[in-house]
Amino acid sequence: MAQNPTETKSKENADIPKALRKKIIRLWKSPSFAGSYLGLSNFRLALKLDENIEISREELRKIMNTDEDFLLETRKIRKKIDRRKINVHGYCAT
To answer: pTM for this one?
Structure first.
C-alpha cells in the first residue's frame, strides 16, 4: 500500500517536545557526552548512536540555533588583522 506523501511530510515536520529540546541542548553542553561541543553532523551522529535519538539535520539546527552558547561556539570569527605597511618603492635586489 502506498502512503500519502502529505502524511509522511507531516510526520517529519512534527514538533519536537520541549523536554527533548532541553535534553539535546544539555547533552551538547555536557563534557561527559562524547558528542558535546562538536559540529551538527558529528553531534547528530553521537545522538543517534549513544542516546538513540534520531533527528533530522534541519530540526537539530533549529533547536541548536535557539541556544546562545552554540551560536557563540560555532560562529566564524572574521576580523581583519592590521598589517604593517612596507614601502618597497625603489628596492633593488642586486
So the answer is: 0.62
**In order along the chain (94 residues), what is the average pLDDT of each group of 10 residues?**
45 71 92 88 92 92 89 77 75 62
Q: How far apart are CA 21 and CA 42, in angstroms?
A: 17
**Residue 53 in contact with residue 21, Cβ under 8 Å?**
no
| Contact status, residue 65 vs residue 32, Cβ threshold 8 Å | no
| Terminal Cα distance for the chain, rounded | 83
